[in-house]
Amino acid sequence: MSVEVSFAVLFAALLHASWNALIKGSADVLLKTAAIVFTAGLVTLPFIFVLPPPAPDSWPYLAGSLLTHVLYYYFMVQAYRAGDLSLAYPLMRGTAPLITALLGAALLRELPGPITLVGIVLISAGIFALSYRPLDHKPARAAVGFALTNALVIAIYTVIDGTGARLAGNVWSYIVWLFVLDMIPFTLFVLATRRRDFIAFMAAQPWKSLAGGAASAGAYAIALWAMTKAPVAMVAALRETSVLFAALIGARMLHERLTPLRWLGVAVVVAGVMALKLA
To answer: Which of 139, 241, 266, 268 is 20 to 30 A distant from 45 in Cα terms?
Structure first.
């Protein structure tokens, strides 16, 4: 992976952690998620008129991605309702690279080399250390269940989108259509169930919602572009360094505690990133 691609993915990781922190920091996780999904679609909508449509071969992947993203939002909302950002976020993002590597090898024939595999394992191990805590109360156990289920969903849509972006002819066209179509089902659901609450929420926090939507769209756009330049599993693993940013944001803004074990997890994740750079 080139230096340019690596730095782009790290920036995407920062953006991803930022919009997840906005969701967790909100009093109403569902409304904040809906606001970010809606504004991400609005931010990307104008580009539909200046970019060519994705190639027909990529449309089945767009459809599959939309389905898995609905599941992703559902399990993410449930995980954040049940537990801390620094618990749910690392579990979701830490398990996903391992599953993605397996799916990539099986479906895309992208077999990671020894050093790459070491880097992926180190990043995942560090993320697990960041998320560790005694499961002595029900909300934590529930958050773990939702987060691990979502890790599988993340791995599935990562492989789907990595393949679809390569088949689209223009990766940016695929990204734009993905976000525009993605906002429709979730927005319609929220309007049907909580229309007044959603409108009031958007009116009260328009700029925060817009910032979150732009960060969401930018983070995934960069990641998908990187997957056309490097193996999907490698990009997925490097992207999950977002847990470092999430841990710091959780400690600084959400007053979540960083234990010595979590700091060790930070060091292991950094070691994993270095291994990926040597691959």
So the answer is: 241
